[in-house]
Amino acid sequence: MDYINFGTKRIDYTIKRGNRKKTLAINVTLASQVIVLAPNNFSREKIKTIVKKKALWIMEKQEHFKRLAMLFPEKEFVSGEQILLLGRKYRLKIKEENYLSIPKLSGRRLFIYVHSNLAPEDRKEIIKDTLIKWYFIKSTKIIKQRITRYGKLLDLFPKKVIIKDQKKRWASCSSDGILRFNWRIAIAPISIVDYIVVHELCHLKVKNHSSDFWKLVSVAIPDYQKRKDQVG
């Protein structure tokens, strides 16, 4: 394990060599591990110099993934466990039934129905899958509503909207005008959802993060900087 010191912080990183010709790439995983993909002819000192130059970026990525981990902690998928929808807290209530039904919100509880004859080893996985499908449905509805609202305001409309399971990002905009959103967006407060939607809509017109881009974002989200800092 190699490392650099940046101020009072130590950044550990793992070097993986391959057939890359000229460039070095740095990846930060969801677990905040730093992987450096380097050409075979790069010395360890040269790699360390490059990593030092990217230290601030690495730390920002690690902090971003830590915030994501706080939003999406590991769950047991049992009654009484807390979930989030648009930033509001709800409690899971698992009910055994002889028939399947879609999850239902009632007050501050989300009811998920499972077969009463389920084997214990299957129960957790089925509840997890049911909850994720429910989030997919919710995020699809929420995203379409917000795109309609802000699309009219900005006169920007995507070619297509796709809800996906994305581990490293909230959303993305492709060069062909397709917007992709992480289903987990339904967990975030509506102020953050709006910022992410507007951010991607603006990329339909301005592909980079220039001053023109942020000026366009500010038309719909005047306090975008505050929300940007929350998203990371």
Automatic annotation (TrEMBL):
Domain YgjP-like metallopeptidase: 22-230
Taxonomic placement: unclassified sequences, metagenomes, ecological metagenomes
InterPro entries: UTP_pyrophosphatase-like (IPR053136), YgjP-like_metallopeptidase (IPR002725)
Matching CDD domains: M48_yhfN_like
Entry protein name: YgjP-like metallopeptidase domain-containing protein
UniProt cross-references to Pfam families, sorted A to Z: YgjP-like (PF01863)
